[in-house]
Design brief:
heterodimer, A: 256 residues, mainly alpha, MetI-like fold, globular, B: 195 residues, alpha/beta, 4-stranded antiparallel sheet, 9 strands, 30% helix, 24% strand
């Protein structure tokens, strides 16, 4: 029964994916000689993707972008989780930091990026900090909610059975916070990679964002799409292959 | 385990602006069990939480014990940990010891199960094993037989009696049913008169 459900959801997903390519194909310009096509067909884009892969250009730029995404993601997740946890557990910390969270959540990403480039310089550190700063408030807000909803009965158990701090964190806090952290991680990743492309677009000499900027200036939509598709594929692999697997593994107690 | 007289002296328990329990005194000789009973909502669980030092909103003294093992009214097992992990996290007991204790309560085949697939009676038995394996000066049992069928009730009652006899454990048992104290307690205190 469960297997059937999974198969049908996979089939539907695949069907939807095929529909997307079908409509793209219908709407696109199939003339491969037209370099200035506004919407090249998926076949042309895939061909371009493979030629970039073969030349090594794609991997080079993908590597730089992934490096920035990874570091921004780690920094945002660690800082946001710590800040959110303490905000959820202490009313005074929450009152003190709440206004900062609101300010940073409403500050346009572009402002933070420009300011980081001006204050730190046109380098990777500025790019990573700018992206992380954009994401930290959102992680903090999600984790704060989780910390507020920690069940006090499990803290009673920790107290009675005299659990060590580490044991309390590992067996009581982390499992309860996990759904909030994983949700922050998933939403975070999708936002982070979008902001990383903007950061690269504005001030880096490499990365997918830089390449998109370059081909935008050359009005080469095929190459813009080829680089965008390559990155979407990577993000899908991370989402389905990594984050969902972690989530599934961590909820094994619910499935039992 | 300390071999001292346990003295519980509670002048007042604070509940916001309200105070419950006036001048509640209790002496517990080592290895004995005292039963506390009273009608529903009187504050039996609140009193146990104070004795367990989970709650400190009270005036009075708690003398003669350091560690407390507490069997809560609800099993309060960590749903994301297996039966064995639930016990080992709280008690640091080794696998063989846990397996032996689970055998005593007829749950050895559930050692690797998660609590959500156990019945309430089974969860209670796991909670009891966890409480019994934690080395303490005083054991608190909060309505351990509530909402259990008769067979499970008798089974658990016998386990607690055996444990008390073998370990000479000091205990406080709370229940609203006087029959639960039979063969276990040396004295029953009715809490109604301390309100």
């Amino acid at each position: 029964m469960k297997k059937n459900k999974l198969t049908s959801s996979f089939t539907l997903g695949l069907f939807s994916f095929i529909c997307f390519f079908f409509f793209w194909f219908i709407l696109s310009d199939n003339d491969s000689d037209n370099v200035y096509s506004v919407l090249p067909s998926p076949v042309i884009v895939i061909k371009l993707l493979f030629s970039e892969l073969k030349s090594g250009e794609l991997l080079f730029h993908l590597g730089h972008t992934l490096y920035r995404v990874l570091w921004s993601f780690i920094i945002a997740l660690i800082c946001g989780t710590i800040i959110g946890f303490f905000m959820g557990r202490s009313k005074s910390v929450d009152d003190f930091l709440d206004v900062w969270i609101i300010v940073f959540m409403n500050l346009p990403a572009l402002v933070l990026i420009v300011l980081c480039y001006i204050w730190i310089g046109l380098n990777d550190m500025a790019a990573i900090i700018a992206v992380a700063l954009n994401k930290i408030p959102l992680v903090a807000v999600l984790v704060r909610q989780g910390a507020r909803e920690l069940d006090p009965k499990y803290s009673d158990i920790a107290k009675v059975f005299q659990l060590t701090h580490w044991s309390k964190i590992r067996h009581i806090f982390i499992p309860q916070m996990f759904p909030y952290v994983i949700s922050a991680a998933r939403s975070g990743l999708s936002i982070i990679w979008k902001i990383v492309l903007v950061v690269e677009f504005l001030g880096r000499p490499n990365g997918i964002g830089f390449q998109i900027h370059l081909y935008f200036q050359l009005f080469d939509v095929g190459m813009v799409l080829a680089y965008a598709v390559s990155f979407i594929i990577i993000m899908l692999i991370v989402e389905i292959g990594v984050l969902r697997s972690i989530e599934k593994h961590s909820y094994v107690w619910k499935i039992d | 385990m300390e071999n001292r007289l346990i003295e519980i002296n509670i002048e007042k328990i604070h509940f916001g602006n309200l105070s419950i329990f006036k001048n509640f005194n209790m002496l517990l000789k080592p290895g004995t069990c005292i039963g506390l009973m009273g009608k529903s909502g009187i504050g039996k669980t609140s009193l146990l939480r104070i004795i367990a030092k989970i709650d400190n909103r009270f005036e009075g003294k708690l003398i003669g014990y350091k560690n407390v093992s507490f069997m809560f009214q609800e099993p309060f097992l960590l749903p994301w940990r297996t039966v064995e992990e639930n016990i080992s996290i709280a008690t640091n007991a080794k696998h063989a010891e846990i397996l032996k204790s689970l055998k005593n309560v007829g749950l050895e085949d559930k050692i690797n199960s998660f609590p959500n697939i156990l019945s309430l009676g089974e969860q209670r038995r796991v909670s009891l094993v966890r409480t019994m394996l934690f080395q303490s000066d005083l054991m608190l049992l909060d309505e351990p037989f509530a909402s259990l069928d008769k067979t499970t009730k008798v089974f658990m009652h016998n386990i607690i009696c055996d444990y008390k006899l073998k370990q000479q454990q000091s205990m406080i048992l709370v229940s609203h049913d006087e029959r639960d104290f039979k063969g276990l307690t040396s004295k029953i205190i009715n809490l109604d008169k301390y309100i």
